Amino acid sequence: MPDLKQEWTDKITAWRESGQSIAAWCRHHEESYYRFIYWRKRLGPKQEKAGRFVELTLGPSSLLLSCNGMTLHIERGFDPELLRDVLSVLRAV
Q1: Which domain holds residue 39?
Q2: What domain of life does the native source organism fall in (predicted)?
Q3: Strand partners, 74
Q4: Nearest to 73 by CA among 81, 84, 61
Q5: Are residues 7 and 37 in the same domain?
Q6: Into how many domains does the chain fold?
């Protein structure tokens, strides 16, 4: 199987360097278009889903928010303007 992965990695690299459409490249190299698409998806970069808050913990005097490995610990009496600024920065990342 590793040889097959390397073979398709090489083919996908050759296609990218060719500047051709996938269909044209497959016709020229007598490859199955659908097999090419399968391997391109299988070997392509994994797409991560957009971040969303996944944990909400309420304490007696604070709020703990966790998202994508980041945690915000918000105490009672927090500065709402500062929280808005922090969330704005995190959205931009």
Answers
A1: 2-43
A2: Bacteria
A3: 63
A4: 61
A5: yes
A6: 2
Least confident piece of the model among 6-20, 43-57, 77-91: 43-57
Residue 49 lies in a domain: no
Q: Rounded CA gap, 11 and 13, in Å?
A: 5
Q: Is residue 8 part of a domain?
A: yes
| pLDDT 10s digits, 20-43 | 889 999 999 999 999 999 999 888
pLDDT at 25: 92
Global pTM?
0.48
Residue 33 inside a domain? The answer is: yes
Contact assessment for residue 33 and residue 26, using Cβ atoms and an 8 Å cutoff: yes
Ramachandran area for residue 62 (φ above 0: left; ψ -120 to 50: alpha; else beta): beta
Contact 78, 64 (CB under 8 A): no
Indicate if the alpha-carbon torsion angle 31, 32, 33, 39 is positive or negative: negative
DSSP-H helix ranges across 19-79: 22-29, 33-43
